[in-house]
Design brief:
The chain has 196 residues and is an alpha+beta fold. The two termini are 18 Å apart. The chain has a domain of 123 residues: 3-Layer(aba) Sandwich (VC0467-like). Strands 1, 2, 3, 4, 5, 6, 7, 8 and 9 form a nine-stranded mixed beta sheet that branches. It is 22% helix and 27% strand. The longest helix is centred in the C-terminal third of the chain and has 12 residues.
């Protein structure tokens, strides 16, 4: 174990993963997808977990990736490494998009894609109320728990306002600050320890 590893490893909080909770990655995770990531869990059970990375935008424009959609000025995000040929979405629109599922108060998962296309066509969809993700993050049964034991993640709660109104590139730092004093040194570590 290096000095940096000792510096990062702290006793994890007692909050367990659950639907609607958030995973905050430890600061030195070097993985392309999960380094300094914030993952919103839309499902968690004994069978496994399903989540979306909230803070990794992609440079491809919405209509470049989805030419069959009406013109829309929305940002695309990388939801995770699994099934990257599929589109997923979170929104604050509620029942105006049929078949949506409320995960936490005011934040909805999925729904009828036809409703979204119609709202875009009629210029009724505000891009600040919906986020589109390419791919998702998935874990087999017990996998998150194993990663928590290795201090790869900290589980926390966050409101819809924090998750949707914080600039995505600032979300990891913002949530680390909310974790409390014992985590504050995380924000001071370089993304790449070799830069030190």
């Amino acid at each position: 174990m290096t000095n940096i590893d000792r510096f990062v490893q702290i006793k994890s909080n007692n909050l367990r993963p659950a639907k609607g909770r958030v995973l905050v990655s430890e600061p030195l995770m070097g993985d392309y997808y999960f380094g300094r990531s914030v993952i919103f869990l839309t499902e968690h059970s004994a069978k496994g977990s399903f989540g979306i990375i909230l803070n990794k935008s992609v440079s491809t424009k919405f209509n470049e990736a989805l030419p069959d959609f009406p013109k829309f000025d929305g940002q695309l995000y990388l939801g995770g490494p699994v099934d990257t040929n599929r589109l997923f979405f979170l929104h604050t629109i509620g029942s105006d998009i049929s078949n949506s599922q409320e995960i936490i108060k005011g934040l909805y998962w999925g729904g009828n894609m036809g409703d979204i296309k119609e709202m875009i066509s009629l210029n009724l969809l505000d891009s600040s109320k919906i986020r589109f993700f390419i791919g998702y993050s998935g874990w087999a049964a017990g996998q998150i728990e194993s990663e928590l034991k290795r201090n790869s993640w900290v589980v926390t709660r966050a409101t819809t306002e924090i998750l949707f109104n914080t600039e995505p590139e600032k979300l990891w730092d913002s949530l680390v600050k909310k974790l409390g004093k014992e985590y504050q040194h995380w924000g001071k570590l370089p993304v790449n320890p070799e830069w030190n």
